[in-house]
Amino acid sequence: MKLYISDSDEKVPEVEEKFDIVPEMDECDQVLILPGGLGAFHALFQAIDQRIDTIIYNKDMYYASVIKNLYEAYQKGKIQQAPFDYLDIESDLDEIIRKLEEKENGKTNNGKTSKLL
Questions:
Q1: Nearest alpha carbon to residue 95 among 12, 37, 23
Q2: What are phi and psi of 52, to 5 degrees?
Q3: Which of 53, 76, 77, 81 is 20 to 30 A off residue 106, Cα-Cα?
Q4: Structural Rg of the chain based on CA atoms
Q5: 2-104, which class in CATH?
């Protein structure tokens, strides 16, 4: 599995040491969005647009308002396909690592999200 990690000041050596990290999103099988600035938000929306399996590290509820707005836009019909079909939102880094390991070993959650917030 090739993993793309969004730009962030947040460092995740536990992930970087275990997985094949690629420099470009178009080379990846999975995206990990970390709390960050405009680059992280850009990567999040690019992953949504390209429908790439994505885990959002929602540390300290960083992405809560974005997730809520995406959900409301989908509910109101402003977004045609539910982005939650390929987004997984997690606030626990150990759980993210477990899910990435499952994905790497061929076990997936079939596009089901864990906790929204």
A1: 12
A2: -90, 140
A3: 81
A4: 13
A5: alpha beta
**Tokens 């061929």 label which residue?**
106
Domain segments of the chain as ranges:
2-104
Residue 22: which of 46, 5, 35 has the closest Cα? 5
**Contact of 33 with 44, CB cutoff 8 Å:** yes
Residue with tokens 């606030």: 91
Cβ atoms of 8 and 31 within 8 Å: the answer is no
User: Is 40:67 a contact under the CB 8 Å cutoff?
Assistant: no
Q: What is the DSSP letter of 18?
A: T
**Residue 13 to residue 57: CA distance in whole angstroms:** 14
